[in-house]
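Batch job 17 of 40 flagged for manual review because the log was empty.
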Amino acid sequence: MKTLTFKIEINAPKEKVWSLLWEDATYRKWAAVFCEGTYAVSDWEEGSMIQFLTPNGEGMHSVIEKKTANEYMAFKHLAMVKNFEIEPVDLATQEWVNAMETYSLTEENGVTVLEAKVDTTEKYVVFFNDAFAKALSIIKELSEA
């Protein structure tokens, strides 16, 4: 497992960036770069389960491991989802168990730095490098509008 880190400076308060990250309508806009139609099902509270799903019911079953409003969100991926059902962990999905995905926001003089980190396998490094660059650009564009 390899951890990739992505950063972008956004000319907007961190509260606005935070809202755009996690509100359903805007989450769907930036998450679409990973798969068109991607959405999340959760109450977005620390300790709660969350599922990141595609329209055909595939994705990740995770837990919100840590949440500090307007500052930090950490997801721990626990299992894969297929046909809207949590799949038992097997050899093919074992490598994703306990993979982390985090988002942190820091603000100075009206400029927010968004840093995203994701654990991935070598197979997905190129995909995530491309997708996260696009996702962060969309978040910046939405935040600065």
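Reviewer: the log was empty due to a logging misconfiguration, but the result itself is present. The longest strand covers residues 72-82. Unflagging and moving on to job 18.
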